[in-house]
Amino acid sequence: MTTESTAAEPAASSEPTDVDSTAAENSASTGTPKSPRALARARKRQSLARFWRAYRSHRSGLWGLAALVLIALIALAAPLLAGADAQSVTDTPGGPLELPSGEFPLGTDQFGRSVLALLVWGARVSLTVGLLAAVLCVAIGTVVGIVAGHFRGWYSTVLMRVTDWFLVMPTLVLAIALATVMDRSIWTVILAIGVTTWPTTARLVRAQTLAVESRPYIERSRALGGGHGHIMLRHVLPNVMPLVLAQTTLVISSAILTEATLAFLGLGDPTITSWGGMLQDAREAGAVSAGDWWYLAPPGIAVAVVALAFTLCGRAIESVLNPRLGVSR
Amino acid sequence: MTAESTPALVQSADTDGGPAQPGPPAARGPRARNTRAYLRYTAGKIAGAVVSLFAVLVTSFFLFRLIPSDPVKQMTGGRPVSAEQLESLRRQFGLDLPLWQQFTDYVGDALTGDFGMSYQFHSPVIGKIAEAVPATLLLTGTAYALYTALGIWLGTRTAWRNGSRSDRFHTAFALTLYSVPSFWLGLLLIIVFSVGLGPIPGLFPTGGLESGGETGFAYVIDVAHHLVLPVITLVAVGYAQTLLVMRSSLLDEMGSDYLTTARAKGLRDDLVRRRHAVPNAMLPTFTLMFVNLGHVVAGQILVETVFSWPGLGGLFYQALSVPDLPLVQGLFFVFATAVILANTLADLLYPLLDPRVGR
Amino acid sequence: MDTPAQQDRHGRGRTHHRRPLRLLLAAGAAAFTLTAGLATPLNPAPERAKAADDGKKVLTVAVAQSVDSLSPFLAQRLLSTSIHRLMYEYLTNYDPKDNHTIPGFATEWEPSADKLTWTYTIRSDSTWSDGEKATAADAAFTFNKMMTDEGAATANGSFVGNFKKVTAPSPTKLVIELKKPQATMAALDVPIVPEHIWKDVDDYAKFNNDETFPVVGNGPFVLTDYKVDQYVRLKANKTFWRGAPKFDELVFKTYKDQDAAVAALRKGEVSFVAGAPALTPAQAASLKGEKNIKVNEGPGRRFFALATNPGAQTKDGEKFGDGNKALLDQRVRQALFLSVDRKTIIDKVFQGHAVEGEGYIPPRFSTYFWKPSDSQKLAYDPEKAAELLDEAGYKLKGDQRVGKDGKPLNLRILCHATDPNDKAVGKYLKEWWGELGIGLTVNCLDDVSVPWYAGEYDLAFDGWSVNPDPDFVLGIHTCAALPAKAKESAATDNFICDKTYDELYQKQLAEYDPAKRADIVKQMQSWLYDSGYMNILGYPNAVEAYRTDQIKSIQTMPTAAGNIYGQDGYWSWWSAVPAGDTSEASAGGDSGSTGAVIGIVVAVVVLAAGGILIAMRRRTTADDRE
Description:
Oligomer: heterotrimer
Helix content of chain A: over 70%
CATH architecture of chain A: Orthogonal Bundle
Distance between the termini of chain C: 28 Å
Structural class of chain C: alpha+beta
Number of helices of chain C: 17
Largest sheet of chain A: none
Number of domains of chain A: 1
């Protein structure tokens, strides 16, 4: 990505939004016969580069991205950093609920395990759940949104009714109910979050779909014999993708918070270490009234940092796509 | 709050009824036609709300049937029961009927406000809910008023000073608090201000609504005292959303030509802001306010649990962990109904505020 | 021309616009500090402060449970039944020293020669709180109600299952006729209610006894006020026949979680915090160092066990469920037994706040307590466990035990999602059994009853609170307790059905000689131990704490190193002595110094707020200039 950023940098605010520019180039490309694939690749590279240049000018977005990269690296390197048996209870290095020390920088939990090591391992679960739940949520939302935006008639109405209905459900209440209905496992949590949060995405994508489909080149494509599938996949989908990307980043943030919430309520898998689960363990161990802040504070801070990082990235992406939102740099 | 959609996107999600054109308002034509159009719009929205309510009723019945649980065990607390006793309990709670009949009974009763008997409390569900409503309204209502006011105020300020240091500070601060899990913040506040940490004495009660036994003014003070920490938690986590929506819609509005015109006419910035920009930018915030209003009733499951608040959220979580199906169903219905009503109300008021909608 | 006017208007508008907001903020801050300031002087010990005000001695108990019903015919939770102990008399009571039966509402009781008729002499010095005399007729009414009205049998129906007829020939004489002999007739834990109040109740299944206050009773306390999910208030019954309680009022205050209750104790908001069922080791440790707080630890009445599914079946022997067939082999069950290090569980999970498990009945009940002989004992021995598994045909292949059918040995264990101990021990089991080559899935649910009754589990965390009379916990392992139909709820604990055990059970039930009965009960426990069906991991202690500056002394049960909350009887609250004048003096000193601290804190906060306001204003003007 960075290698492409040599071109002259136009002022971000005067630049047309990515959606528009790709759309324009897309429509232009239909007339070019020579190696369309190479052209498309070059175009993609260009727009990526342009996107990165614009993104780079958002300082908070960069901070968020840096934090995410760092945390992702830590999560991936968990076995190296924290040791593979950091979660074992039968062979623990410390005593129960020890204060932070040189050996245990964040103290120990009630089994004598290092809180820092658990935090590192917990990053894996929290990130995985956040990412997968967001992907599920955005996938459902995108499909529903595009279909509802593309087709007219009763099934579009029905789809939007269902969406509206989900939108009025108290999300957390519904997620708790779903998590209670199913087994305690991380898949349950992913499903509960994904299934309850998609309607916002669906409405966004539908609006964008309507906007894209009102453009003349769609008309042209239809006239040339492009079927529903062709239009939705080749024209609408690429044009809603940037929006979907921004939305995903923002949804991950709330998904991670919801995961922590569900785990805290005891609806997560108790045999897996996650940040929310750690908070629940801490509370059940009586750390709040005992004042064991080192056990309670780190998981909450970790959740907040990751959620904030994703939000910052999401906002930066969003304002690159729509400069009028005026996110501060 | 945590599972809500992300702030900056709320407005775009809600204005998709058709790409909103900032052009001249469509309020032309004879008044009668407008009224008729509004009535038709109203009828449509109300019909939609009724359909939604019915769907909620159906969901609340079937969703919670899926929870693996044994009602008789909930009713008897695991004590040994004779076969006859079992039979009579089943009959008493209508569990011996076929599912479809249980369903029609449930719907019929629900329409008259009867949600059956709680398994664990042996008393009508609607009574248990009515007992918990005032506490929830007090807590979330207070918090709602505060964070909406704070959000609008700070949102206006930050938008007006877009890019300034105070804007950056407030936006970053709000975003940070927005990313914090509410229950965790509550626990920390309890440790610091209630249990007391180091030199800080425990200033506030650890939980509950009242100490009990107080009357008159002392009672009011006592409740207010109990209210402080949970309200702070809710406001801290909640105001960011309003702030961000207010800020971005105001920024949107400020780019508009008419503001430039107003300024060119020689109006000072403050006047332009108060008279023109803010009222127009209020619309998306208004939507968000109503969305949040619906959730006032749903309460705050986590904050209520952490602070032992005797409200609906805590009751729901407790009922779910038993599980006390009739109570869970009743609460779920009440929560969803509140959201539907608030949304419908917003839909009905919206065209009166923004002439572009509802024609 | 226009401009100055506009500027003027604008100028005014500006101040108008800002001043209210700042005023609002200031008002908010003021209200905040005011409530803090106003309420805080009372706060270190509101109950004590009140005691000084109107001379009432109030004992506040923090509980992490809410009342399910105040009707003794419906209530099942420990909190509710504990409150009923205080409101109503039971026929008999238990001695706080050693649990033996002593007079309660009845002063004497004896069986007839054919063991089928019991005659109770009812005391004549007990009156209801509305002035009416409490008589044998009230007791007869209570039992008859439970025998005839299904709604009234909800909570305690099992006690009257074997009753043929109950009469009250005179105000001091109660006669109960039985269908067959029953040794538990001196342990009828049923609250006796006043007939003149309860005869007007239409529907016992719906009446929660919370409509008129005070609630008429004859126990050591009278219930005067109840607010759902918040508190239950009782006042001392000055005319109680055993003597009036020393505290004037007793309040049970509900906290949604135990941490909040502990914090409330630390601040003096409450006098006593009940563990639910015990304070966590961390809570106990942090409270131990506190001034004016005593952590009380007594032997618990619960056992904490692993139950094995021996193949679920109905009374007619119809098999159902999907319990792992490997567990039908006693050697496999014993191998699992041998590979659990109970000592580590006590040390690590309970951190010493429990006693290592041996027999089925906790040592608290010394009459019935049994422990395995050395040769019988299945101590931690993973090597022997591996041998037993080899013998049973589950050889180690790679790192997995594989049965003769070629399938690896994987087990599931049911755990209660609300019990942290279940989850913690589950982690250990997973590792211990993993080393043996047995896979384990820990399946935690809020309500385990559905898979449990359906027999769809291999192992389960199990635990029962044991009464002074062990009949109930023994009865749940008999064939008679099995369900009539597959997957229906029944009295059985985990589908054990064995002829030897059943014969012993019948024998002890008909044995009216205490020593002989105890001996039979021990034989039953020995059988259970060898079967490997029930692995008693430990007996968790009751861990609770109270403020010594509010409670001077309180009766524990058993007297030597016993517990306080959830006793068999009303001893603790009835006996509690309020701390005298000395503590009030010290409380005054306390709140004085706290007041000073608060004053300083408030001053600092106000100064800081002022500073921030000024700074913000400066910055605002700077921003304006931009």
